[in-house]
Amino acid sequence: xxxxxxxxxxxxxxxxxxxxxxxxxxxxxxxxxxxxxxxxxxxxxxxxxxxxxxxxxxxxxxxxxxxxxxxxxxxxxxxxxxxxxxxxxxxxxxxxxxxxxxxxxxxxxxxxxxxxxxxxxxxxxxxxxxxxxxxxxxxxxxxxxxxxxxxxxxxxxxxxxxxxxxxxxxxxxxxxxxxxxxxxxxxxxxxxxxxxxxxxxxxxxxxxxxxxxxxxxxxxxxxxxxxxxxxxxxxxxxxxxxxxxxxxxxxxxxxxxxxxxxxxxxxxxxxxxxxxxxxxxxxxxxxxxxxxxxxxxxxxxxxxxxxxxxxxxxx
Length: 315
Description:
By secondary structure, the chain is of the alpha+beta class. The protein is 29% helix and 25% strand. α7 links the parallel β9 (171-176) and β10 (198-203).
């Protein structure tokens, strides 16, 4: 948590030995049938089949090279706390899934786990129609046997596995277990100071087995803000002289939008500020701000004029 990272484990290290199990009998049968239809002199068709077989193996290899970060939708699950929460001596971190995944949108895929008594069957048409990796990941890494349904699991699948950085603002709330010591609570709050994280204490009424949570104060709350930033604005980022005449009246919003984004914690430099050609209309102009987040990594932010007014007032 301190460094805003999470670990996505390779599937062979997960505690369920059936992780990633699927039935590829139908797929292999289809490939075998295709081969029988192609005679040895039909070189073009044979090459096409070889290319398809190679593509299938590459997709399956992609899954083997992926990592899994497992989460639950339910922070009040009694068994989850017993199995993964140090018998209630630990704590539960609540994430904003969208913010967690969008930090590396080309590497992270969010999938809901489905539960079934049979392993998923993989067919060639699923691979052919898979326009994004998440389709195959859902089939192979997004299905577990029925007894696991109590976990209500959602997964962030990454490529490659291992340690990944995330936006620190993805951590929204921390729940402390029934037996969590005061020293642990204090250490967590000190670690996450300045990040606007909420805290709740798990409790259980004496007349039931149910769990509930109640808000508790952040003893490390202060005016300090984690990762305060004021990134530079490139000299060529804003060019009001090249605006269309009907947009000239809004040119001040370009500078306001830049001021908003340069304060983003992960912004290294504002590179371009302009009106979006694809999202703008004359009735509702939209401004985009492109910033450098890391070497060769860019982030585009889009704002309507009312959004700029609202956020600029809070600076």
